[in-house]
Each structure stands twice: as C-alpha cells, then as structure tokens.
Amino acid sequence: MIRDELDDFDRYWKEALVNQNLQTQSIPGETDYLNIQAWAKGNSISIDQSTISVGRGLMTLLVKNLKDALTEMDSPRGLSLDIEGHKAGVNITQIEELVGHKSKRGKKFGGDLNPKWGRVEAILQELFSRGHIKIYQNKNTLISSDDESFINQQITRITHPIERGDFPVSVYLTMKEEDGAHLRLNHEDYNWHTYIRDRYGFPPNSTGILAGNMYVDIPVTLDNFISFDLHLAYGETLSRKISQFTGLERGLGQLEARIEISDRASMNEGLISLDEYYTIFRQKNSEHMADYYLHRSISDITAAKFDLHEVPDSNPKKWNVEVDPLLLRWRENTRDRGRTRDEDIGSIEEGASA
User: Fold this and answer.
1) How would you write the chain as a 3-class SS string?
2) Rama region for 247: left / alpha / beta (φ>0; ψ in -120 to 50; rest)
3) Would you put residue 223 in left (φ > 0), alpha (ψ -120 to 50) or beta?
4) Over the range 224-245, which residues count as b (16 or more CB within 10 Å of their CB) and which as e?
5) Per residue of the chain (354 residues), what is the pLDDT tens digit?
6) Cα 266 to Cα 169, 270, 277, 292, distances in angstroms
7) Rounded Cα gap, residues 93 and 290, in angstroms
8) Paired residues of 183 in beta bridges
9) What does residue 133 show for φ and ψ, rounded to 5 degrees?
10) 245 in Cβ contact with 56 (< 8 Å)
11) Pairwise CA distance, residues 239 & 223, whole Å
12) Are residues 161 and 121 in contact, defined by beta-carbon separation less than 8 angstroms?
C-alpha cells in the first residue's frame, strides 16, 4: 500500500511539475497542486515521531539548502541565473549532523552501526531511484555514468539496506567527501525549485514582483501560493515504507479509519455523524486517536480537517463531522488507482487466455 502511495506521489508530481519532454521549466504561480495536496492530506498521519523523523529530517534539509541557494540567487548579490554549487545540496557531514555518525567509532562504516543509517540509506535510495535527487561528485559535476550504473546495480539487488554492505549512496558520499560530493533535489528535471518558490516565495499577481521571488519579504496580508509543506508528508511516507521492513511501522489502524470515514462521508455530501466517527476509530483499534484528529485539524494546517457541526433541531444534541474535501479527493484518487489496476490485470488475463 505505501509503495502505491509513493507511486501516486510521483505520478501527481510529474503531471503537475514535469513537462513531458523534460525541456520546459514550470513557472512559479502557475502549477496545479490539487492532487499533490490531496495526497499529502491522506498521507499525513500521526505516528511515533521516531518512526518518521529521518524522512522528515532529510527532506527538510534538502529543501532548506535549495531554498537558501534560491534566496541567494534572487538577492542583489546573485551573480548567476543558474542554481550552482554544493550549497544547494546536502553532503555526508550534514546528514551526520542530522542523525549522528554511522557508527560509534566515528565517520566510517566500522564498529557498531547506528541503526538510523539503515533508514537514511534506504530513503536516499528511494529518492535516487525515483529521480527526486541527483548525486554530484564535486561542486557542480554530476556523478560519472559508471558510478551511477554501479549504484543502480547495488540498489536493484537490495530489498532493504540494513546490512553493513548495503550502503552504496552513503559510501559514495563518504569516499568522495573531500572532492565535494553531495546530493541535490532534482530541480533540472523534476522542478523542485518551482515547488520551493511556490511554497516560500512571493505569491503571484503582485505588482512589480515576480512570482516566486525568494528574497523579498512577503507582507502578512498575502498568502503563499501553497499553504503547507508537501515535502514533509512525502518524507513521512518514505519513512513509513522503510519501517515496514524493520517491523516498526505504526498507524495502520488510524489509516484504515480515515479510509472508511472518507468512504462513508463521500456518500453523504462530505458528512459523517460524530457517533459513526468514534465507532470507526474504535473498530480499527485506534479509539485514542479520534479526539486527537479533531483537535489536530484545528491547530495543524497540514492535517486533514474534521470540523464539527451541530445537527439543527436535534434533541438530544447531535453533531456531524465534515471531512476535509482534500481527504475525500485523496480517497477517490486511490479508488480510481485501484480500478485502473484491476482493469489492467483483467486485460492481461484476457490476453493470456486468448
């Protein structure tokens, strides 16, 4: 299921931000993020922070460094129209500052392995395989084709990198550290810079300032083009996928509850009774999360909204829960994906029997 969700993210991202021939850059303020935002609402669940912290941390670091590079480029000191230099990326030392050394004996892969590094490497492999990051061998030169091929071969044979010899990305960054090896979000092909400009830059339709400008402060009266951090939901989902292999995955009950709540609400104009809401969470062994989601939807902009409405003229008093339209869209998209897959399987079976 989580792999399907990651595949959906890739599909929505490419539909919104990647030109089919990979030659046209997307423009800040003109991207339709609706399906990606719905995806983020569906995949931003509440689980043990230790389970998702590595993915969130890595995506935060990657986005921050590219964001800082874009801000510098837009400043009066910006001397180039290109995103250049290792400052836009993340090196092995910065990752160690985030999660600690790879082993208790220091920076190399000797001694007792820091368990977080199995998760780090697995997430980096996912990002690299899916095209969301690129590896540079120095300040501005991409990894050689031979090294890239070797890493891809290593990744292909690895189910999940927990063992000591299964760290091709981290080992490369370590060995080439003195040359300036680093990772960058793929802004050339996947237009991550456009998302960052839309999330943190100046909003569109403002007189005299280009949409997405990162240097000019945004007045409090204006809203960003995107209101919440899509990359954090992506990082959390990457972490959840990796946690499947380590037996640490959490949150399946609440995910199932959100699916059933969305299914019932979609058949009733987005509403479900408060009694049904609590019953579903109880049936999914996640009763303790029911109140949490009601409160979180008020305080956390990234969370799916569950708004309470008193039923008019009810006696005794009753309430309905209005479910976030973006959460309903996420659920509808996953149903469409399932129908498409079933149709594809049916076509294959028909072809085989013919």
Assistant:
1) CHHHHHHHHHHHHHHHHCCCCCCCCCCCCCCCCHHHHHHHHHHCCCCCHHHHHHHHHHHHHHHHHHHHHHHHHHCCCCCCCCCCCHHHCECHHHHHHHHCCCECCECCCCCCECCHHHHHHHHHHHHHHCCCEEEECCCCCECCHHHHHHHHHHHHHCCCCCCCCCCHHHHHHHHCHHHCCEEEECCCCCCHHHHHHHHHCCCCCCCCCCCCCCCCCCCCCCCCCCCCCHHHHHHHHHHHHHHHHHCCCCCHHHHHHHHHHHHHHHCCCCEEEHHHHHHHHHHCCCHHHHHHHHHHHHHCCCCCCEEEEECCCCCCCCEEEEECHHHHHHHHHHHHHHHHHHHHHHHHHHHHHC
2) left
3) beta
4) ebbebbbbbbbbbbbbbbbbee
5) 788 999 999 999 999 998 755 555 678 889 999 999 999 999 987 665 666 889 999 999 999 999 999 998 888 876 554 566 668 899 999 999 998 877 655 555 555 667 788 889 999 999 999 999 999 999 889 999 999 999 998 887 765 555 555 789 999 999 999 999 999 999 888 999 999 999 999 999 877 889 999 998 888 788 889 988 999 999 999 988 887 666 555 677 888 999 999 999 999 999 999 999 999 999 999 998 899 889 887 777 778 999 999 999 999 999 999 999 999 999 999 988 875 544 443 443 444 333
6) 43, 5, 14, 22
7) 41
8) 90, 135
9) -130, 155
10) no
11) 30
12) yes
Distance CA 61, CA 54 (A): 10
Q: Which residues contact 12 (CB under 8 A, 6 or more apart)?
A: 35, 36, 39
Amino acid at position 263, single letter:
D
d(CA 39, CA 228): 12
Enumerate the β-bridge partners of residue 319.
310
Residue that is written with structure tokens 């892969």 in the block: 109
> Apex CA 257: angle with CA 252 and CA 260, to 5°?
125
